[in-house]
Design goal:
Distance between the termini: 47 Å
CATH architecture of the largest domain: 3-Layer(aba) Sandwich
Structural class: alpha/beta
Low-confidence stretches: none
CATH topology of the largest domain: Rossmann fold
Shape: globular
CATH superfamily of the largest domain: Response regulator
Largest sheet: 5 strands, parallel
Radius of gyration: 18 Å
Number of helices: 8
Strand order of the largest sheet: 2-1-3-4-5
C-alpha cells in the first residue's frame, strides 16, 4: 500500500515516513499543496496525509482540488483543533483529523483503520437498502438519496447514518457509536462524533429532527416523535 505524505516541514515528513515504512507502507512525499495535487493526478495512492498550513496551496484547498479527480482517503494534520477547522475538513470529505503534536504510533493505527474502512464492499455481498420514508441508503452502492435526490455525504457521515438506521429507535451510547463507526482503535474524542452529527443533520432535511440527542448518553434515530 502506498501513501502520500504532504507537509512543508521536512522533519515531520521524515518521522511519518520512518514509521510508515516500518509498517510496510510505500511512501512518497510532497512539500506543498500544489505538488500534492499534481502527484495525486499522476499517481494512485491508498491514502494521503495532508498538513493544513502550507505555502503555495494550503491543505484545505489541496483536498478540494484532489477531490475533483480522486476519492483517495485523506487524514488531515493541523496544529489547530478548533471545531470550525474539523467541520471544514469533514465537509470536504476528509476521513480523519489529527491535531499536532501527535503520536506516530497512533497515526499508523489511524492510517490502517481509514484504509480498511475505505475498501470497496465485496462484490458478492447481497444488495441491501435501508429505508426511512423518503430517505434511502443503498448499502451496495454506498449511496443515500432523499426523495430521489442524491445526498453528498462524507464517508463518515454515510457510515454514521447507516449505523443509526440499522438501529432505529435504539438509544446508542457515544462509546458504542465510536466503536462501531470509527473502530476499536479510534483515539479521538466525542467532539468528532458531535461534529459529524451536526453535518449529518444539515444533510437530512426534514428528517433532521429524527436524529435525536439522548442527553447524557448519545444519539437515537427515531421512526416516530
Amino acid at each position: 500500500m502506498k501513501i502520500l505524505i504532504v507537509d512543508d516541514e521536512a522533519k515531520i515528513r521524515a518521522i511519518i515516513k520512518k514509521y510508515a515504512q516500518f509498517e510496510d507502507f510505500e511512501t512518497e512525499e510532497a512539500a506543498d499543496g500544489m505538488d500534492a495535487v499534481r502527484m495525486c493526478r499522476e499517481n494512485k495512492y491508498d491514502l494521503v496525509i495532508m498538513d493544513v498550513m502550507m505555502p503555495e496551496l494550503d491543505g484545505f484547498w489541496a483536498v478540494r482540488e484532489i477531490r475533483k479527480t480522486s476519492p483517495v482517503p485523506v487524514i488531515m494534520l493541523s496544529a489547530r483543533g478548533e471545531e470550525y477547522d474539523r467541520i471544514h475538513g469533514f465537509e470536504m470529505g476528509i476521513d480523519d483529523y489529527v491535531v499536532k503534536p501527535f503520536s506516530p504510533k497512533e497515526l499508523m493505527l489511524r492510517i490502517r483503520a481509514v484504509i480498511s474502512r475505505s475498501r470497496p464492499p465485496e462484490q458478492d455481498r447481497p444488495h441491501r437498502t435501508l429505508v426511512h420514508g423518503g430517505l434511502v441508503a443503498d448499502l451496495d452502492a454506498r449511496k443515500v438519496t432523499l426523495d430521489g435526490a442524491a445526498l453528498q455525504l462524507a464517508p463518515k457521515e454515510y457510515e454514521l447514518l447507516v449505523y443509526l438506521l440499522e438501529n432505529k429507535n435504539i438509544a446508542l451510547s457515544r462509546e458504542k457509536i465510536l466503536e462501531k463507526v470509527w473502530g476499536f482503535d479510534y483515539f479521538g474524542d466525542d467532539r468528532t462524533l458531535d461534529t459529524h452529527v451536526k453535518l449529518l443533520r444539515k444533510s437530512l432535511g426534514r428528517y433532521s429532527e429524527d436524529l435525536v440527542t439522548v442527553r447524557g448518553m448519545g444519539y437515537r434515530f427515531e421512526t416516530e416523535h
